[in-house]
Design a protein that fits this description.
38% of the residues lie in helices and 19% in strands. It is built from 14 helices and 18 strands. The two termini are 33 Å apart. The relative contact order is 0.11. Pathway: Amino-acid biosynthesis; L-proline biosynthesis; L-glutamate 5-semialdehyde from L-glutamate: step 1/2.
Length: 416
């Protein structure tokens, strides 16, 4: 068993190395672009076949950007959509199992199409299939980063998709927008381009005659209520694009949301030749380690602390102590990132837990000198150490606290 102090030291060393890597990449002369393409652009809605005309234009533009010196990473949806016809299921009637089967059928078809078109432009491709677990587990996250970096170094275009064949409703990322934003954070991209079926963000539903186009966004939270609805083939909508843009902004990445046209869909947005919504990057991006902790795809678990403790946490004067816990929610493991709330349900911080859920329940409401006796090994009384805790700022989109009625949440009241 790794001692707690060594466990924390290893993360601190990892954080320092990530910051050094971020510094060199930010000042690299070679720009990095992450492109996200949705199912509605890649697949014909009527017959669920691949739209080769769009695919050809997309790959021609990627090849052009690569020739001009940019590193490009493509995040692509479409596998489940193109595989639905083989499963004889209509998109609106597909169950989770149908979608998993459809993804298994569609993945080789989609990658074969990408391979065929990429060869016309002399581009080598590689597929990277990911689940939310790969993004939330620190070790697997870094392994994924190393793989993508290695592909880029060898001039191979990584094509990334959520692994829909094995994900479930409980663990799936849910949309490739936020997965793509995670990748943009991971590789310290300069630009993140989300291609969609409309030309950008509107302040109301685009079908509303009074809707106005939004050319530039600093704070995405002001547009959350206006971003409802999803396409018939995809699992994301403008809401997930705003969430993804917020994640990219926190990493100092400029986000572009624009229409996926046939000719030069990416470069015409980046050059300003046609209109798109630009989400301005924050001028003081967080470190890679803090980004990994704050921008989550799923919630592993959560803690509620007393008002006094929440105030101290906001002041960055203490971590999350066992004696301050009010409730514990979720079945989390040691090393997971937990969401921390005050007693009014406002999210205060996110941080790396020193204990699993069972251990946390055992030691909750006990003083530090009792913790070692209860657990049977020497440790501190902090569930989350101060140096592994990130207080949320206004720039972050917060998550609602878990509800007791939610059968996916295991919550125990410790206040009594």
């Amino acid at each position: 068993m790794v001692p707690d102090d060594l466990y924390c030291d290893l993360f601190l060393v990892g954080r320092a190395l990530q910051q050094i890597g971020q510094f060199f990449l930010l000042y690299s002369l070679k720009p990095r672009i992450v492109v996200k393409v949705g199912s509605s652009l890649l697949v014909n809605e009527d017959d669920l076949t691949i739209r080769y005309a769009f695919l050809h234009g997309l790959m021609a533009d990627i090849a052009k950007l690569r020739r001009e010196g940019a590193d490009v990473v493509l995040t692509s949806s479409g596998a489940a959509a193109v595989g639905l016809s083989m499963m004889n299921v209509e998109p609106g009637k597909a169950s989770l199992q149908d979608k998993q089967g459809a993804a298994a059928c569609g993945q080789p078809l989609l990658l074969h199409a990408y391979k065929q078109v990429a060869l016309e432009f002399g581009v080598d491709i590689a597929q990277v299939l990911l689940t939310s677990d790969d993004m939330e587990n620190r070790r697997r996250y870094l392994n994924t980063k190393n793989t993508i970096e290695r592909l880029i170094d060898n001039d191979i275009l990584p094509i990334i998709n959520e692994n829909d064949t094995v994900t479930t409703e409980e663990i799936r990322v849910g949309d490739n927008d936020r997965l793509a934003a995670r990748i943009a954070q991971m590789i310290q991209a300069q630009d993140f381009v989300m291609l969609t079926s409309i030309d950008g963000l509107y302040d109301k539903a685009p079908s509303d005659p009074e809707a106005s186009f939004v050319p530039e966004v600093e704070d995405v939270s002001g547009y959350i209520e206006a971003t409802t609805g999803v396409s018939s083939l995809g699992s994301g909508g403008m809401l997930t694009k705003m969430q993804a843009a917020n994640m990219a902004q926190n990493a100092g990445v400029t986000t572009w949301i624009g229409e996926g046209i046939l000719e030069a869909p990416i470069s015409t947005i980046l050059s300003g030749e046609r209109r798109a919504t630009k989400c301005i990057a924050n001028g003081d991006p967080q470190s890679a380690f803090r980004l990994w902790m704050t921008d989550r795809l799923t919630m592993a678990g959560s803690l509620t602390v007393t008002k006094e403790a929440a105030d101290k946490i906001r002041e960055n004067s203490c971590g999350v102590r066992t004696a301050d816990l009010v409730t514990v929610a979720g079945e989390f493991a040691k090393g997971d990132v937990l969401h921390v709330y005050d007693e009014e349900g406002t999210e205060v911080a996110r941080g790396l837990t020193n204990f699993d859920a069972a251990q946390t329940l055992m030691i909750a409401r006990h003083d530090e000198d009792q913790v070692a006796e209860l657990l049977g090994f020497k440790t501190t009384g902090d569930v989350i150490n101060l140096n592994n805790l990130v207080v949320l700022e206004e720039r972050h989109l917060t998550w609602d606290a878990p509800c007791e009625e939610d059968d996916q949440i295991v919550q125990v009241d410790l206040a009594s």
